[in-house]
Amino acid sequence: MKVIVTASYDETCRVIAEMIAGLVNEKPDCKLGLATGGTPVPIYKKLIEMNKAGKVDFSKVRTVNLDEYCGIPGTHDQSYRYFMNTNLFDHINIDKANTFVANGMGDFEANARELEEKVREGGVADLQLLGIGNNGHIAFNEASDHLISVAHIEHLTESTIDANARFFEKREDVPTMAITMGMGDIMAAKKVVLAATGLAKVPAIKGLIMDDVITTQNPSTMLKMHSDAVIVIDKELAGAVGYQA
Ligand code: PGA
Predict the structure, then answer these.
(1) I want to staple 70 with a disulfide (CB 3.0 to 4.6 A). Which of 37, 78, 126, 177 is the partner?
(2) Is the CB of residue 131 below 6 angstroms from any atom belonging to ligand 1?
(3) Catalytic residue numbers?
(4) CB-CB neighbours of 10 under 10 Å
(5) pLDDT per residue over 132-175, tens digit each?
(6) Which of 129, 27, 122 is nearest to 88 (CA)?
(7) Residue 56 β-bridge partners
(8) Is 232 helix (H, G, I), strand (E, B) or coil?
(9) What's the pLDDT at 91?
């Protein structure tokens, strides 16, 4: 695992956007695993700027997203399909037919199986982008006494519902279940890039970068076993966890 400490969150996003653009330039038909949440928004903004400036071409890129809430359709403004369209896909030259976000409606189990197929289709992701939950979750693989390797339905923890309530009118509106890639799906990606900022992430990042323990109570710690995992944090977060480059 490699840890990169940047001067600011803006620099974190620039570094990651450049990593993604560099991969796309090297392999125009690469497969990207994408993430939602507050963290990746400025990364996507930078990719949009680069695409508009002619510095990166997404016309052949394929994407699969980590997860989707159960019970809200892709047209709902809090669905992850809607998020991806409005924060990235609508503004770049990607073919939406090459993008996949699990369907949050209908038969959830069948939708999870479809996600698993998409994870495998045409080979594993060349790069998987990740955020991290305050409890160390990656995608919606929640802290628990066990983790699941393949795509599945997850019941969200109170901590995750609290953290995501800011996007909804009221806390009761936050879906309590989600379809998510499993830990094995994420670990299978050739490269994993995790971005984190903000003091709410201190306990999770401490567990991830400050010791050698792997625990299902902080699912991100499994990335310690990945051969090409890159953790990008700003100096404020690095200082708060006591990390010295
Ligand atoms: P955030 O969420 O980017 O909104 O902090 C990260 C996550 O829950 O994985």
Answers:
(1) 177
(2) yes
(3) 67, 135, 137, 142
(4) 13
(5) 999 999 999 999 999 999 999 999 999 999 999 999 999 999 99
(6) 129
(7) none
(8) strand
(9) 98
